Amino acid sequence: MSDQQKPMGRMDHGKTACGRIVMSRWDQPERSDNEADRQRFIRDVHRSGFIQTTQVRYEGDQLPDWVGQSHCQDLNCRCQEFLNRA
Ligand SMILES: [Zn+2]
Fold this sequence. Notes:
By secondary structure, the chain is of the alpha+beta class. It has one domain. It is built from 2 helices and 3 strands; from the N terminus they run ββαβα. It has helices at residues 34-47, 79-85, and strands at residues 7-15, 21-26, 51-58. Strands 2-1-3 form a 3-stranded antiparallel beta sheet. The termini are far apart. The site of zinc ion (ZN) has 8 residues, from loops.
């Protein structure tokens, strides 16, 4: 983690087992409904069978790939579903 880059906030992701993003949201602590929205998001991620992670974003950093953008070699991985649909 670099201390030269400016933090931009926190994102919550729902990811496949190989780490590709399926759904994503910015944490918006200034919004009164943020915590409820976050809990709803996390529930959705779990209900959909994906993995929930939280990432602090820094200026100039890179997001992991979205599903559909690339895929892993595991034919049983759920990122494959998104390729077929595209
Ligand atoms: Zn995969």
